[in-house]
Each structure stands twice: as C-alpha cells, then as structure tokens.
Amino acid sequence: MSLVADLRSDTLTRPTRAMREAMLDAAVGDDVYAEDPTVAVLEQRVADLLGHEAALFFPTGSMANQVGLRLHAGPGQEIITDHLAHVLRAELGAAAALSGISTRSWVAERGQLDVDTALAVMVPDGGAYQVSTACVVVENTHNFGGGTIQPIEDLRRLRDATSEVGVGVHLDGARLWNAHVATGVPLSDYGASADTVSVCLSKGLGAPVGSLLVASAERIDRARVWRKRFGGGMRQVGILAAAGLHALDHHLDRLAQDHARTRHTGQRVAEVAPGVVDPANVHTNILVLDVGAAGWSAPDLIAAAGERGVRGYPTGPWHARFVWHLDIDDAMTEHAGEVLADLLAHRDRGGEPA
Ligand SMILES: *Cc1c(COP(=O)(O)O)cnc(C)c1O
After folding, report:
1. Predicted TM-score of the model (pTM)
2. Does residue 211 have its Cβ closer than 6 Å to ligand 1?
C-alpha cells in the first residue's frame, strides 16, 4: 500500500512552501496592543468580504464561536441551534462551562436548516417564566450534517424574522468559503444574514492556524475584551495572518476541485451501493456514508478502508465521514473511490446489518 488518502478532516492540510515563504516575510507587531500590521490587513479584508465593519483574529474557530455567542448571551440566557451543530457537539460544552449559557436544539436531518422549526423553538420574550432566546446559531456549511449548504433564501427569512423580535443570529461559517464557492452567492450576502459570523482559515483553505469573528465595530471592541479573557490574546501573530492572506489569495477558488472530487466519489459509491449515499445530498467537500445500509458498522468500514490506504472518521455507529482538501489529488480520489465502492458493494463483510 503506497497511496494514502487521508480524508479524516480538512484540518489535516499542511502549509505549502509558498505559504511558508509568505509567513517568513510578514511584518509583525504585538497584536494584544493591536499593533500587528499583517493581522490588521487580514481583519479588514475578511470584514470587507463579509460586508461587516470589523473582524478579530482568533487562534481557533471554537474560540471565535464562543466569543461570538458571549456577545449575544450571558449566564442564564439561551442560544438555540440544531442537534448536530458544532457549537453543541464539538466545543465541549464551552457555552455552559465558560459563559453560563443554556442551549436548546431541534432535530435537523443532515443539518439542513428548517426555518419554521427554528422559529417555533425560539422564545423571544419568556418573561419571568421561560428562558428567553438571545440568539439562533446557524452552521453553513454544516459539518456533521455532511457539508450541507443552507440556502440563502432560508438564511434571509430567518434573519428577517429574528430581527423583528430582537433575537440575534450567529453564523458558524467555519466552511462558509465552501458554500460561497459551491453556490456563487457572494460572501457579503451570507454576511448580511447574521449579526456575528465566524470563519476558519485552517480547514479547506489550508492555513495552519486561524479563524476570525466578524461583526459591527462595537461588537468587535467587546469581542477583543472577551478574547483576552478567554486566553486568546496573541502577540506577533502576523506570521499566521500572512498564511491566512496567502490562503485567501491562492486557495479559495480551488475549493471547487475538492467539491468535484467529493461528488465524483459519492456518485461512484452510489452506483454500487445506492442506499449508502444520495448524490443530491453531497453539496461540498464532505461525504457522509450511511455504511449501515450496506451491512457495515462505521468502525469496521473505517478500519477496512484504512488497511487499504483510505482514512475516514466515524461520525456515529453507522456513519462514516470522508473530507476532501488541498492535500488530496485526483489519483488519491480515484483510489478512495475504488476502495470505498469495492467495500460497500460487498455486504456481509462488516458488522451488524442495520
Ligand atoms: C472546525 C469547525 C469549527 C472550529 O473548530 P476549531 O478546531 O476550534 O478551529 C467550528 N465550526 C465548525 C462547523 C467546524 O467544522
């Protein structure tokens, strides 16, 4: 086995030589004093792209999300989102542990936003009896949902309905770049659908580190205080901002290649094992396979694929996730398609039938 396609996550990308060279030449200063010129350029550029006044650079997307939520809600207040949301499932209870925020959720198949359900769960003014909802969180694209895109019309309708009753919207846009490239919807249109937006440079864009929170200048001033309080004040991080600027210059448009490779692989699997994936649900760079439908358990399928050089991640007992990114080329994609199609076409080799 020589060819290894590591499809566990798009966080696995390693900085290219050109990116490292851009980092080497970056002008730097102390960013806690707001004196790092490269960070300032990156923050303004991302704020402009999303059509907001200001942005703030963060070490991680989780911290950008959690500071974003903290701007909307405090102890005893509530945010609501879907049951697969990253802020609920993969940030280790931070909203409760760090900010005393309580959460409620609704069930969303594949993470697809259902505006009517979100609005039905929302309690704009609970008075002295029920918890009032401070903020609705939307994830676009949706990670555990399988790279699901939220249609801009739905985001607009949610924004209109929430702003009418004074409820905020936070957009977890770790992969908003993928939604933008796949749909052609301008980033500023997505930006206009939320009060606060987080974006990651460290996923498909291929930077080693870095996320931003985007909002009004007033909110970003407050976010700067919370970032320091959460331990995220960084010093000469212009070297990391330079990687982010390089990623925006060189790695944004190429996300379309990741999407094409993901779709291609999804189609290949669907041809031999139709119940495992519906190609219409493969929106971007994440392929979630219902391997239980082909008689496999997720851990067994992941182990069998791993032995043949294709690495994935089990998102549940019967679901396996494969994510395309900068370090995966056509040859690796062909190899992954061949291995997955071969394993999934042959039932009864894995675990319990579904
Ligand atoms: C990766 C990710 C984040 C942030 O993750 P970090 O590892 O903290 O940078 C946030 N939201 C979603 C949907 C993600 O996929």
Report:
1. 0.96
2. yes
